[in-house]
Amino acid sequence: MKGNTVTRVASVFANLARNPNYIPDYFKSGPLTKQKPLDLELPWFSWAAIRFLDSFVKKSMNVFEYGSGGSTIYFAKRAGTVTSTEENPQWINRVQAKLDELGLDNANVQHRLFNFSEVVDFGKSEYLHSIPNSSMDIIVVDGTQWVTPVRPTCFQHAQKNIKPGGIIILDDSWLHPDIRENNKAKSHREFKSVGPCRSGVTSTDIFFY
């Protein structure tokens, strides 16, 4: 989250003081670890959101992600199917290698080329429109955004493809307060805490449909 180093450190200690159950996770998988979320097989979400998802995700569910990584592994181990869209072929190879290593064959990381350094006609891009036609139980709005924030566009498109009873997960939600005000969800919750490989406190919002 925003703020200088002192502010970020203070927010971490305050969050851990309020949530001491995150302390072992923070020291095992926080910024001091040399591992990345893909190595840890965890989403780069807040721990508060991950703990919620631990009990929410079921084998009967279909998941779609804008962006791939540790979350792809996490959902592939818990859900029925996972489809992830990624624009970086080198990163796809790394994620696929991890899936193969773990023997997870229910995830499809699809390559949809898009130049995020020059965002032109994103609304017409294959990246944006890569959600399978079938309605999804869980959609993750994460992934690349460099010059222009594209997650609000991804979020609005995702709402067309979420099942009743499903959820949309918005990572780094503190960057997009407008989405909290402009959505079709029945309700939404902010999950604010430290998270894997995070140097500070972050927010992951979950929208319920």
Describe the structure.
A 7-stranded mixed sheet has the order 3-2-1-4-5-7-6, with helices on both faces. The chain has one domain (5-208): Rossmann fold (3-Layer(aba) Sandwich). With 209 residues, it is α/β, with parallel strands linked by helices. It is globular, with a radius of gyration of 17 Å. The chain has helices at residues 5-18, 23-29, 37-40, 47-56, 70-76, 89-102, 151-158, 177-181, and strands at 62-66, 81-86, 107-111, 136-141, 162-170, 187-193, 202-208.
What count of structural domains? 1
CATH superfamily: Vaccinia Virus protein VP39
Strand content: 15-25%
* Radius of gyration over C-alpha positions, nearest whole angstrom: 17 Å
The parts where pLDDT drops under 50 for at least 5 residues are none
Q: Number of helix segments?
A: 8
Please bin the fraction of helical residues: 25-40%
State the total count of DSSP E strands. Answer: 7
Structural class: alpha/beta
- Biggest beta sheet attributes: 7 strands, mixed
Mean pLDDT across every amino acid position:
91
Shape: globular
First-last Cα distance: 27 Å
Query: What is the string of helix and strand elements?
Result: HHHHEHEHEEHEHEE
CATH architecture: 3-Layer(aba) Sandwich
What is the CATH top level name?
Alpha Beta
Biggest sheet strand line-up: 3-2-1-4-5-7-6
Please name the CATH topology.
Rossmann fold
Short description:
This protein is of the alpha/beta class and 209 residues long.
